Amino acid sequence: MSRRAVSANGRSGHGSQGIPEATIARLPVYLRVLYAFAEQDIPTVSSEELAAAAGVNSAKLRKDLSHLGSYGTRGVGYDVEYLVYQVSRELGLTQDWPVVIVGAGNLGRALANYGGFASRGFRIAAVLDSDPEVVGTQIAGHGVLDVEQMEQVVARHRVSIGVIATPAGTAQAVCDRLVATGVTSILNFAPVVLNVPSGVDVRKVDLSIELQILAFHAQRRSVVRVPQDAQAVGR
Amino acid sequence: MSRRAVSANGRSGHGSQGIPEATIARLPVYLRVLYAFAEQDIPTVSSEELAAAAGVNSAKLRKDLSHLGSYGTRGVGYDVEYLVYQVSRELGLTQDWPVVIVGAGNLGRALANYGGFASRGFRIAAVLDSDPEVVGTQIAGHGVLDVEQMEQVVARHRVSIGVIATPAGTAQAVCDRLVATGVTSILNFAPVVLNVPSGVDVRKVDLSIELQILAFHAQRRSVVRVPQDAQAVGR
DNA sequence: CCTTGTGAAGATATTCACAGCA
DNA sequence: TGCTGTGAATATCTTCACAAGG
After folding, report:
1. Which nucleotide is closest, CA of A71 to its C1'?
2. pLDDT tens column, A131-160
3. In terms of DSSP bridges, do strands A77-79 and A44-45 run parallel, antiparallel, or are they unpaired?
4. Given an 8 Å threshold on Cβ–Cβ distance, is B215 in contact with A10?
């Protein structure tokens, strides 16, 4: 799956320390499901219900949540509102994260228009591109700026998260430049392995890798006909 | 990380059996790097070189490759061409995978235009949408078809991989319908947990989850100033 | 009672370190 | 000699199963 750079054992000084990476990766899913429960005005959920909705088993969910603290009530379950707050806080979503998107092609446009982007904590500070044809056009309410303005944009909006949606060929150069301006978290959609100095966190989203993993399993299925129930599914 | 449904221990009859899931997830990266070496006409690579380019450590790379067989030469390294072939074969990329994309919004368009899509094994059989405004328009050389034609398209092109690029609200319905027509591998871009019967493999790509994981680490970094070298990076 | 929180067991994954072979 | 392939050691993650507690 994805790339992780920072070793994540910074051991925070306050309450919770050393939350496992695998747990971190699931918290956003729990959070989304919790919001769904909240919207239906459901006040409390059991680990069983939450787990089912999130597609994991309940022991795992309980252990995950136990890393944040003891926020449940035995015999009852978890208070939805309260847990939303605690998970949000743990993920750092109680603060605002200005994001800069580099690359205003099809993908950049899709990202800028993606609803879940603006919601809950993330805000597009700017969309940048190097193509003079594209610079100046309007995308999701943002005028596309020239990539030359990266330094000013990052400084002015205190951007710490950069999204790379450029072609593979320019991704490393864009990345270097983002890092040079002080961006320390990068989400990379270009199909290349980025080289970054230590202290910079890179995550990768790669369509073709996902497809290839699917192909592997599909092939496997068609080669050996799997016995009826030698399969497990995420509920 | 991502979701995996099939338990993947089908134990194939021929040479290789039981390749770990973590290894499978890295093979596409190795493959991409190998292609880059091949393009530069480099005939052989050591595990050290390959690992560096792929952003992993060399012991891991060697162990990964050892699951496919003994394709290296001690004292020399791996033959690039040969390894490309072996990895491709293992991933099932020596055959053609027709893919149907459901949802022709910004994201669907971006996916259809994504170059790496058409390359190496994957072929867009059709792009479907339910919006009469969109049906009939042209995307990346494909006329958008009505989602009502899903069954015919899947049958005619023997599609086994479906990509869901619809809004969250309709994703489950689209998924159910794909499954009903016989699609057993699904790549989901909608921010929902899909329910599928056993035997169907779902992978999820979720922008906002990746952002939230980045936010967690970014917050962590800003709260506790990490000692200079208590960090490890993917090269 | 019912459900959380968690030690302990088990399963996977990573890394080390070196034997074995070209 | 140099690099692969791999047992053994370690670290991480998942699952079980039950004590603790509202």
Report:
1. C4
2. 999 999 999 999 999 999 999 999 999 999
3. antiparallel
4. no
- CATH fold, domain B21-91, is Arc Repressor Mutant, subunit A (1.10.10)
Where in chain A are the domains?
21-91, 97-209
Task: Work out the minimum CA distance from B181 to partner chain A, whole angstroms.
Answer: 16
Q: Do A203 and B213 touch (CB under 8 A)?
A: yes
pLDDT one-digit tens code per residue, B19-77: 999 999 999 999 999 999 999 999 999 999 999 999 999 999 999 999 999 999 999 99
* pLDDT surpasses 50 at A210: yes
Topology agreement, domain A21-91 and domain A97-209 = no
- 3-state secondary structure at position A153: helix
Residues of A in Cβ contact (< 8 Å) with B5: 231-234
Calculate the angstrom distance between C1' of C16 and CA of B60.
11
State which residue has its Cα closest to the C1' atom of C7.
A63
A44 touches strand C (CB under 7 A): no
CATH 3.40.50.720 fits A97-209, yes or no: yes
- Residue to mutate among A94, A186, A209, A229, with most B CBs inside 10 A, is A209
Identify which of A117, A118, A124, A181 has the alpha carbon closest to the alpha carbon of residue A155: A181
Residues of A in contact with B25 (CB under 8 A): 1, 209, 213
